[in-house]
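3.2 Worked example (two chains)
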Amino acid sequence: MSNSWFQFKQFRVEQGDSAMKVCTDACIQGAWTARHLQSSPHPERILDIGAGTGLLGLMLAQQTTSIIHAVELDPASARQGMVNFGSSPWATRLWLAEGDIRTFKFEDRYDFIISNPRSSGKT
């Protein structure tokens, strides 16, 4: 049985209620993307599609000064992601909404979009 949380150096990801748990692939993707963004012009606004626990948004917030918006379809995962965003040191730059990205109404434009392609196995 996995832990209900995953501790990083600067933040903790609660994941007990989320369908999307912290995994090696997501950690590698987040670290690689954060490194890439450090060597290119920093995006002002980032969109995280299918945020799950908010892991990717948190990893990018840790390494950039970007405003990060996230959308998550699964209600339990969205609630978990909101908690993780709210308890992070970067809470003022993070926002997560529950909804379907295909019908979500955006008020902003984004300079960078990230999504973890990993599937929870549910259809």
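3.2.1 Second chain
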Amino acid sequence: MVSTHTSGNKHSGTKYLPITNDPQISPNQQLLPLTAKVINQDFLEIGGCDVITLVKQFGSPLYILDETTLRNSCSRYRDTFQHYYQGESQVLYASKAWSCLAVCMIAASEGLGIDVVSAGELHTAITAGVKPTLIYFHGNNKSLTELVFALEVGCNIVVDNWHELNTLINLAKERLLSGIPIMLRLAPGIECHTHEYIRTGNLDSKFGFNPNDLDELFRLIIQQKVLNCVGLHAHIGSQIFECQPHRDLAGVMTQWLNKARENGLSINQLNVGGGLGIKYTESDDPPSIEEWSKAICEVVQKACKASNLPLPKLLCEPGRSLIATACVTAYTIGSYKIVPGIRTYLAIDGGMSDNPRTITYQSLYTSVVANRMSAPVTETVTIAGKHCESGDIVIKHAHLPQVEPGDILVIMGTGAYNYSMASNYNRVPRPAAIIVANSEANLILQRETLQDLIQKDCLPERLRS
């Protein structure tokens, strides 16, 4: 249930709109998890669990992950690629969106592989039981330790640059290894309409080889028996609302595949990245998972047919569109401040330490009051975090009913890049995370304690006297 108002301070007592958690609609096109509903007229329920009761039990702030929505998104990607692509396909979960044991296990149980970008994410995926052959290790500056770890694990390594390529060759020769599975990341030079910081596909990017170096790159790899180049990778950005840039990308990558074969390199995988956007506000209108997947499958098949190429194994690596909508964050409302003629600040018990996306990307969110779901919308307020930072604003213009301290505010779409980017700014402990399903709630991440905050602190002996 969300407000119909989008601006201004005058309200007509409009009530929230009905929740549109239609299982036929792609989860990334909805604001709340698929299981969200209102019980007893006023109370928000997710996964069969009353949000107010959850906060009483687990505290706030609290990440609430709906297992049904996450599994639905995973299966939609998996099934759509299998339906529209005539060759082999593999969906990977971009775990940078939210890496923890429970999430990785669920993704793997739905047949997905895992995309990792650090030793920590790789360790999490391995510990969760993901097969190394289904793990793809990305990153523009993998450390020597991380590359050694990847070699020991036996996962696929997505090579990003010349330095990494040469380092990997030397490591393999030192260890008498051969046939190391690698992919090559390329910068395709494709622009997309998204935030500057989450555009990764244009040529002016820290990621990927320059496509102009392809011939030289292919020649070097052919000479190196220690490497087995299984595929090509590209990624053009995040929170994208258009299918055309991905159609363009799929077409460009098929041309690269053809060039590889002309150079005598047999490559059989194409990874087109991820980047499909989600609905954070009523005005957002992203393509569905099905529309995005179908567009890519069709372009790759058409391009391969035109070039008389066998169909490669087609990979994609969604993150945000898999998990963002599946999670909400519940906060307890505290103080408020009225600045006459300007705005009303409504403070919550979290903020930029558990959700840094607003201050980082100027991201927009939608909110509801979990214990006043049927109350009329009468106020426009600014949701402020508790941190000692003027920019700690979670929502600048939130449209809510009248609230009181102690009410529970729910921010939607917080499953991606919230916990994974969380910090201990102001020495605030990171929140707990729970997973809900079939009226049952279980911890998947414990709330940090004050003792946790100083656990790694060290005091030199000279300071103790």
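3.3 Remarks
The chain is about 30% helix and 20% strand.
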